[in-house]
Amino acid sequence: MELNTQMHLLNPLSPDLKKDSTREGYGKALLELGEKDSRIVALTADLAESVRVHYFAEKFPQRFFQCGICEQNMAVVAAGLAYAGKIPFLSSFGAFSPGRNWEQIRSAICYGNANAKIVSTHTGLTVGEDGATHQALEDVSLMRSIPNIRVLVPCDFEQAKKAIHAAAKINGPVYVRAGREKMPVFTTQETPFELGKISLYKDGSDISIFASGALVHESLLAAAELEKEGISAAVLNVYDLTEMDNSTIEKYAKKTGAFVTVEDHQIKGGLGSAICESVCETHPVPVHRMGMRMEFGQSGKGSELLKHYGLYSSNIAKVAKEQLKTKKR
Amino acid sequence: MKLNSTKELALMANAIRADIIRMVNAAKCGHPAGPLGLAEIFSVLFFSEMDFDPKNPQKERDIFVLSNGHVCAGSYSAMAHAGYFPPEDLLTFRKFGSPLQGHPSRKYFPFIDNSSGPLGEGLGIACGYAAALRLDNKPQRVYCVVSDGEHDEGSTWEAALFAAKYKLDNLVAIMDRNYIQIDGTTEDVMPLDSIEEKYRAFNWNVISIDGNDIPQILSALKQAKDCKGKPTMIIAKTTPGKGVSYMEKNYKWHGVAPKDEDAAKALSELAAERKKIEQE
Ligand SMILES: Cc1ncc(C[n+]2csc(CCOP(=O)(O)OP(=O)(O)O)c2C)c(N)n1
Ligand SMILES: [Mg+2]
Predict the structure, then answer these.
(1) Please, are residues A122 and A93 in contact by the beta-carbon 8 Å criterion?
(2) B94 touching A, CB under 8 A?
(3) What is the pLDDT of residues B45-64, one digit of tens each?
(4) Does domain A194-326 have CATH number 3.40.50.920?
(5) Which residues in chain A come in under a pLDDT of 50?
(6) Interface check B120 vs A, CB under 8 A
(7) Considering only CA atoms, which of A72, A43, A77, A73 is closest in space to residue A60?
(8) Residue A112: other Cβ atoms inside 10 A
(9) A238 with A270: CB under 8 angstroms?
(10) What are the residue numbers of the active site of A?
């Protein structure tokens, strides 16, 4: 399978890919940032190690705030710290931040234009055994619906580090969606990460697969399966879900004529919605949104759940093949 | 099924502890420390205090609200022994397809009175149940198990205000005062003491007990019934990880499953304890 060489990706099919989590990428990047900039402070709500801010906390105990299990207060304290010139990173599980503290994020952080960064480390089905209550499947939707916040969804450990560094550079609210589970790391330090852009990881002419987060890798595997059947699928990584990269979306609508979107999130309000919103304003083509079809998750291993809900490479390939039939002649 | 003696209730607590260890060991994840400390409380609630009949689900019964859902290995075990489902099913805990979800869910078991997991919601739900029972002039009572960590959440205190305002004396909450949460001791993470004084200031009937002492639990629940015009908070000081020497009082066991050899050690300690109770 031929990848876009400008993206400097590792072969997604290689069995030797290192595995790591996006939350680990967050923890490492936050530590690097802390060393460079004394304005960086970190907050958590009784989950320091789970969200990987313990690295920062150990190195910079003065700049670390253990808020207790108080997600709402954590968000407003972060806003106050930001108004006073600090750059707070506040973290919990996605179900509780931005789940529980959404209004505080909306008012104090977004409306108040606080230079605060909300990073959630347990999102999607890959949260696993803790079950439905802990599987944040609406967080992207919640954050995308508020004005004045940038929403970033990195696809692997390396990209998570870049997203965190980018978040620190932005002067204003940012949400970064990270995950718990170790996943193959297939992007590299050289892989571009440009705000406002969609990255083409593999070109194709029959169909476009737009993917975000944990399912970009599966989507590349799906493209490899499709290639064996003579179907040329483009795979595009959407990591910035704020304003969409309309020109790339329009270009691939014209080029391929049919879309599939893939995300570990409800199909309403996340990537699938974002792509539909954009493409219907430029060059409408049929879109099949893959994700959670508006139901709650359940307990199980992350991989079992992705399988159960159809979010794995062979099923993405199957859906893509079906989707070819919807193309206008 | 009612157990009438302290000894039988202690044996049930011991059985619940062994189940907790087997369940988290089989699941390879889950939360052992909290429910181990709550075993006597679960035993007393399900086998002495609460009025319910698993064989007759239509019958009106007392309400059990588990607010700190992560301790469900213990309540699932009590519910299985009480006859809600076969104890063999306990080993499916947290596994794909099992109704024994990682956190209790109303979606999978009709006899579970609240889905939980997100902390700080149970006391408010219990207030809702208690207010509804009162509206309907029903004699049933609401039992709410809530943790100390959950008292970081503002919502818990909102519920405390509500219960006092509406004088919900058909509500009794039992706080698992085990002094641990995830990142450390409660007093390091977010100091709570004096929790007794706080609840008194919120106009609750407050009773402090050793939560691993069965006669004290029984007598506190009786006092709660006798108290009119106020909700009752039983501050139950428990030992997290109780019964498993290497887990006791160590917050690191909040959410880690023991490996096979550690689980075996825990089970043999619990078996020795069982013998002791039997001989008493
Ligand atoms: C709203 C919310 N925030 C965070 C969590 C993650 N969490 C699960 S248990 C826990 C610690 C709870 O403390 P406590 O109930 O006292 O725990 P235990 O004594 O059983 O160890 C935390 C922070 C959660 N479940 N819900
Ligand atoms: Mg506790």
Answers:
(1) yes
(2) yes
(3) 999 999 999 999 889 999 99
(4) yes
(5) none
(6) yes
(7) A43
(8) 18
(9) no
(10) 71
B77, B46 in Cβ contact below 8 A? no
Which chain B residues in 60-79 lie under 8 Å from chain A, judged by CB atoms?
Answer: 69
Question: Do the domains at A19-184 and A194-326 have one common CATH topology?
Answer: yes
Summarised one tens digit per residue, pLDDT across range A65-97 is 999 999 999 999 999 999 999 999 999 999 999
ipTM of the complex: 0.96
| Pocket lining: B133 vs ligand 1, CB cutoff 6 Å | no
The reply to whether ligand 1 has any atom less than 6 angstroms from the CB of A47 is yes
- Provide the whole-model pTM: 0.97
Of the listed ligands, the closest to the CA of A133 is: 1
Q: Domain coordinates of chain A in residue numbers?
A: 19-184, 194-326
Q: How many whole angstroms separate alpha carbon A303 and alpha carbon A309? A: 10
Reply yes or no on domain B6-279 having CATH 3.40.50.970.
yes
Class of the CATH domain delimited by A19-184: alpha beta
* Measured torsion, CA atoms of residues A251, A254, A260, A261, in degrees rounded to the nearest 10: 30
Domain ranges within chain B, ordered by starting residue? 6-279
Please give the Cα distance from A49 to A225 (Å, whole number). Answer: 38
Overall average pLDDT of the B134-140 stretch: 98
Given strand B142-147, what is the order of strands in its sheet? B63-66, B142-147, B171-177, B232-237, B205-210
